[in-house]
Protein 1
Amino acid sequence: MTLTPTRAPASPAPARARRRRIRRFTRSDIVVVALLLGAPVLLDVLLIWGPTLASIGLSFSSWNGLLNNPPDWVGFRNYQEIFTSYPPFWPALRHNVLWLLFLGLVATPFGLLLAVLLDRQVRFTRFYQTVFYLPVVLSLAIVGFIAQLFYSRDYGIVNSILGNQDNPIDWMGNPRINLWAVLVAVGWRHVGYMMLLYLAGLKAVDPELREAAAIDGANEVQSFFRVVFPTLRPVNVIVLVITVIEALRAFDVVYAINRGRNGLELLSVLVTDNIVGEASLIGYGSAIAVVMLLISVGFIVTYLTQVMREDRG
Amino acid sequence: MVTVPPTTRRTVLRGAGLGAAAFAVPAALVACEKPDSGTGAGGGDTGPVTFGSNYSDAVPKKALAEVLTASGQDVKVNTIDHNTFQENLTRYLQGTPDDVFTWFAGYRMQYFAAQGLAHEISDVWSEIGANFSDAFKAASTGADGKQYFVPFYLYPWAVFYRKSVFDAKGYQIPKTWDDYKALLAKVKADGMAPLAIGNKDGWPAMGTFDYINMRLNGYDFHINLMAGKESWEDAKVKQVFQLWGEILPYYQAGANGRTWQEAAQTLVQKKTAMYVLGMFVGQQFSDADRADLDYFPFPQITEANAQDSVEAPIDGFMLSKAPKNLAGANKLLKYLAGTQAQQAYLKSDPNNIATNSTADTSTYSPLQKKAAELIGGAKHISQFLDRDTSPAFASTVMIPSLQTFLNKPNDVDGLCKSIQAQAKRIFTQ
Amino acid sequence: MSLVAPARRTSPPATGRAGTRRRRHPWRWVATTFLTLVAVGWLIPLVLAVYASLRPYLETAQLGYLSWPRHLSFDYYRRAWTEGQIALHFWDTLLVAVPAVLATLFFASFVAFLISRRRIRGRRVLLIMFTAGNLLPFQIILTPLYITYRNVPLPWWMSWPSERLYDSFWGVILIHVAFQVGFCVFVLANYMDTVPKELIEASIMDGAGVWRQYRQVILPLVRPALGALGTLEFAFIYNDFLWAVILMSTGDKFPITSALNNLRAQFFTDYNLLAAGSILIALPTVLVFLLLQRQFISGLTLGSTKG
């Protein structure tokens, strides 16, 4: 590839002029940018945003997914029915919120704690890292099996250990407790992911910062919260966004256990039931997905203002 | 058990190409062979018959492959796991479907036929019809009166028990609902859980609903209810739940936390006495124990309906809307409807029976013989709740509703109201 | 950050890191014990899953999962390998995952470079578009995507027998790339914010075009981050069940995660066999992690304080 070189400045240019020049692209630069930026943008627009807009449209229809049978436009009827006569909807929403609270307040901080401990040059740190990360790479099938292994009422390990064979606890079938049992399994997977992100962030913290704090008389905890944690802000943004994504899209563990029913309802499962499965209630399922979308838009806006603020700074 | 999946041509081709293709991923992405001639563009009646199969686990897959090989036709099988195949059928049939595909009888067949996604096979039926009873023909007929389906095998739902348990305690087979309740009470008094239940996956409890409804209100009412033509707030439906409520105290605890397999294990281990399930319950018994497994038909509730209906889901085959090799596909369907193919297949699975009425029953196990009699004597064959109604209704409404009922059996009015509101939405779509 | 300078001055060389480490000794003992306990807790499920996969189904079904073994064998692994056609489907997985991961990282790093270091106009819109695209519930795009794929023709040598984007590896790769580029742009843009601007400026002074700036300056600097994201993305794409199932209809083309259900029967599932199969297919992702671990840890150095 031949690139037209930008002319080197004849004399040392003032900073502002130099910045201006950086923004300038030569003609061949424009070709490169058009190709390499254009392709992913095109993909994102055609395969993600286009279908999303189409689904928002479909959410105002009643349609069984058959192409020779065009959608019936029904206005806001799907939304009205979801809010009033779809029994699993409100429980699902509640469970997603609980999920977010659990991940945000328990699992993510626990991952941070592990990362902080692992960051202190303990021995066998690679072993610990591997162990904590392992659940992250496991697929749906094996997580479902492990849930069965532990929580099965009649044959499971938890009840065997508790030795309550006369009156075993129905970990997966009792809708009052099964969500908590599932959250333990979810935490098991989430903690390793968060640990890894934080560990990476901590590696970048200048060790002198901490030592300085120690010399100033701050104890371990104080120096962490006063000095280290604030410098983790970029990681915190990433972790926050990922935690929200995980909570909102939470799907596979409940799906592997009982397809997200009987106390394990989640929004993503309801969408899947209506759209992906045989049900083919495309309009109705799309409306639930749009509700999910609106919730994530809330977070997107938060993130957006964050980006704007950083940009100015 | 050693089962080696048949090596397909593609496996061999890919295996050979593995090394070379690793250096040229884009070329390998094709991973296919363009046929030399014939079947290219919607071509005539030559070339292989393509066959979309959900016989995905090792034993049935191998049995089906052997049956298809024995047909003498060139059949190219595309296997997709049972659950995925089922969930994706709408997309599959509108995409690039195979000529022949495996599917279910009844409402589920009629739905796709009515949408123009299946090819009619009335001409096939004019040849094979004599070998099938009217109930099978009805189960293979679309709403337009034409046939779309060839039945292959089926299995009945009933009340399963272990003979040794009944013999030891002197229990009698109950004929009526009152006998049934008396037996359940007696078993409970003997310190055993009378009825097994495992409804974690949501569908197994449907069988009990179907039977109580058919025994109480009759087959026609049941089918109309399933089709959304009757109201779920009808007193007749509420009575079904009330009758069911009468026997709920006799179930083992933990209904919604157990899979059907775990429940079946409690029957195997003699922790429970009876289990309402399909004949596939036998898969949980070791070969030694299977001879001890027996069943009786679901008890009678009203004289009028007696025990005239049997729940026996039928699996079989259909044609996609535009088969590339129509003549070959029709020929294959006729072969699969025949006794030779059906009997050859059933050797692999003793928990089903053939649909062809001329099939030789002398090789059947006692359980299979009994099933054949039960089905032969039935006036109506129902296909199970999730096959007799819209899949949307079965999966998004009935499964959660029945689980709710098992958790909180007292609010029948509220439950029926909620089901009806959702049924209205789905069936008026 | 005024703390840094005095610290450097006042701490004598002898009491450097070694000194602080000695002082924290009791702390470290507590930390090690705690980590060991947690690690054991983390491993137990996996160990027991492996244990169950070595025992026959009827045995665990009768005795419960927590019981002494009567039979132990690798039978289920052998069966999962042949009955699940793992070799065939693993090859399918590679055909999808390798190009998808490479393309994702390539495009995402270039876009992140433009957003973060070249600060092109419209970068906020781009960043938000990509990040928000990753936040969408993926089920929402499913039906329109299916219809689109069904209507896009491809030549037979790219997609047989459908001759469409539907039922082709290309389609599955494209949706993975489209979806994952969002996540990677988000992470990489954050990462590149830590690369000193002066490096790019110097490169521009040297007359480098945008491609050379990316190729010669940015890529070497973010290679650790790319290695890390590559590991994560490989796990994500490898473990994806949905897209292949929705967008393909030829069972032999299904990637391994989607094909594993072939080990289930219509009604009966031999969970121990399924466990053996899923452990078997988890091995590559663990292997990739172990291979790239060192890079991984230094790689996800997001937002360094030194930037």
Protein 2
Amino acid sequence: MSLAAFQAALCAMTLDAGLAAQVRREGEPALGHWQLTALEQRRLVAVARQAGMALNCTLARANRFAAVHDAFAMSCVLLGPALRPVLDALWSSQQPRNYQLSGDVERFAATVTAQVLAADAPDGLLGEPQRAYLRDVLAYEAQAYALALGVRHVPDPEHANSPATWVDFAHDPQPLFEALQRFVQPPANLPLARHRVRLALRDGELETTIFGVQDGPAPAAALR
Amino acid sequence: MVMAQPTRSTRSAPGVGVLFNPALIDFCEQHRQALDHLAVIPDRCWTDPGPGAGGRFEPLPAPVAMIDRVAACRPTALHGIGLSICSAEVFDAAYVDNLAHWARRWRAPWVSEHLSFSRIGAAHEVNAALALPVACDEEMLDLLVPRIDCVQQRLGLPFLLENSVTYVNIPEQGMGEAEFLNRLCARSGCSLLLDLHNLYTNACNLEFDPFSFLRELDLGHVVEVHVAGGQPMMGFHTDSHTGPVHEEVWPLLAVLAARAPALQAVTFEFHESSWPLLHTEGVLAQLARARAVLAAAVAEPTFDRETIAALAPLR
């Protein structure tokens, strides 16, 4: 069991940079949670005290973040400095359970909602109007992600089509999307203007059509 | 069980191919003449919530169809990423059986995996989200040899293990990595997938001479080679598979190819996010360069120390 304990400790240090820093500072006493031989303790402390351990922690976080960012790129931009505490909350609540790192993407929206958007969310993490923008963009990206996941389950993804789904926006999505897709914050003074966004797969690509509510059925803009 | 090692007819150059990613679907069909083989990551073709969870290895029709198409073009080797064969508490025979299923479907000449661990815990697994290094010692050899035997029996195919990249140096290991790999292959009968960019990355970051490593390694075990690029990060050279093959990797390939009689395949790997850096022309250029290096190595296999030194001003 000792090798198992060694690997568990190295894994824990990789997933928790705070633990790695503690082992770096305190040495063997910080490893008391695991039943390790003296050699394994020396090895772990030596590893923790190398600069490469910080890189390991960063790479593990980057690997976990990649899938989240792929699905929620615009929400991540809107979160700005609030992204880090959201990710900390997400990742501290559950370690990866499998090598495909599944689950983080699905739990990201729930964590953002609890940490930032809920009525009882901590004040100060995100101000207005970003919170209002985020509420709609997050819902939009969650729907887009669900459609993209569905494509994996059809044998001919280049010709995949889907029924339309809808997301309501409190502001015009066009300037929101234009800014966020350039990885910059959108204008802070967008007027309230209800819109509906239709998402659907057309020949394997996500088709987004924006409707101004006052416009009736004619789309205000179509994006692919 | 010792599998018959793949062999190459005398003095013919090894084949050249790519590790498939979704950016290459059109490339593989339009430029099949540039490819002698493909390698694929089969784990992209299924969902796997892990042992103990329902619905393991549920196939994903879209990526399966993609690999069915490319595997019809050229011999296709499997390069798994989920076995974590060095995990003390985890040996996932069901995962191996699933690999065997897909290897039969795509008529793979061999299957490769990584000499590292990411999975811990017997009942409730945790994943490190990163392939972590192991110590080169007797304990790890004793763990691996029976497992490799089991894998080879279940696969019925040659099984290759890939040298891992590491950014930390585990002290008091008992033997160097080359000796460890030599003993592992001799005892288990497995072969090697030698990732030359991993070797270069480790040599850079841990400050050793990669050519000395090649001299110490029994190159008769090397069946496949990976070549790739990387980038600097936090003061390290990282194995990010960014863009073209790192310049310092080519001299390593030249030296290796001249002395590796079982070498069958040189595989260029890049992350799909690098496709805009490469495009079709960039990938073709890497394949052509690999062919040129291999042809020269086969034609003139007598690299001496001076030649190696001239090829490789590493630092």
